[in-house]
Amino acid sequence: MSKNTKVSIIVPVFNSSLYFRQCLDSIISQTLKDIEIICVYDISKDNSLEILNEYAEKDKRIIIINLQENRRLGAARNAGINIAKGEYIGFVDSDDWIELDMYEKLLNTSLSIGGADIVTTTKIYRNRAENQYIERHIPLESLRKSKNEFNKFVCKNASAPLWMNIIKKKLFFDNELFFAEKLQHEDVPIAHALYCIAQKVVIVDLPLYHYRDNQKSISNTATENRFDLMITSIMYLNNMKRLGLYDLYKDECDYWFYTRYYCRMLSTCFTDFPVIRRDYIKKIKEEFLKYIPDISKNRYYQTKKWERFDIFLWIINKNTSIACFIYNIYKFLKISFLIGKNSIFESKWKKIKH
């Protein structure tokens, strides 16, 4: 392995044997050769480790970390960060793959401006079943305006993935920003903070990362942990406050907390349970009000376009019991086919709607 490692690529490995070879092939064939490939084996139930050992025999740049228990994606990434030798960190999930020149393009872009803290792409290839399409994550114009405007965009918007970037390793250690462990939504506490704390962020307007919707992957398993989002969202706010970013972007952070935590968690309660759990809704509401007592004063909330679900949120804020009662009746009627897709009520509703 080169002593001058440019990028440490961290690959958490869990139940991905079906796609793992494609992932590894895309990494070991990178046009940028000064890389190390840190694969963190998170106790799979398939033959991913056999595949990993096979590749490690052929390519000495591959380093294997064996976790002693299944600790989820965040812990796997942290384990990789802790031993990384590269100036930059990159992340690839073991069921995804990347363009062969991805890291060379990202690194050259950094070098062209004298060294960036983060180089990210605006777009990814999203692969769902047999379909592939380009999905934009970061609008190019957000950074062209100013770093401050870019920070506002990042703080307010839900998605800030880290696997389409290279990030200076020192950003993690200097700011004590590490992934949440043994939780889903592990990147929520740190992604926005990393983008904001970085002095230089550069965008490459190309899709270089292939994201696969794999229902068996780490991020799509353990549905019993659906409430991890509550914990990681609070960690997000606490990190922003600790780093002095919250006061700078209060409206953006609060609105993110409202849409990402409050709305999404309540939506989960309404969609994932046969009968609404009032105790869950009460807990979600209490946690939200603890951090944001009055979202109605938020400038983004005041200008948002109201949708059907917002009516339920308004009722919940007024009276949780009434909201649960109304929605349980709605679900009962829907299950009874009284307002199903082929029902008379639905067809009449559509006519009224239009």
UniProtKB/TrEMBL annotation:
* Presence of the UniProt keyword Ribosomal protein in the record: no
Q: Which residues form a coiled coil?
A: none
One annotated GO molecular function is: hexosyltransferase activity
* Record-linked InterPro entries: Glyco_trans_2-like, Nucleotide-diphossugar_trans
Record has Transferase as a keyword: yes
UniProt cross-references to Pfam families, sorted A to Z: Glycos_transf_2
Q: What keywords does the record list, in alphabetical order? A: Transferase
Question: Out of the domains of life, which is the source?
Answer: Bacteria
Ranges for domain Glycosyltransferase 2-like come to 8-151
- UniProt xrefs under PANTHER family: GLYCOSYLTRANSFERASE (PTHR22916), UDP-GLCNAC:BETAGAL BETA-1,3-N-ACETYLGLUCOSAMINYLTRANSFERASE-LIKE PROTEIN 1 (PTHR22916:SF3)
Descriptive protein name? Glycosyltransferase
Q: Which organism is it from?
A: Leadbettera azotonutricia (strain ATCC BAA-888 / DSM 13862 / ZAS-9)
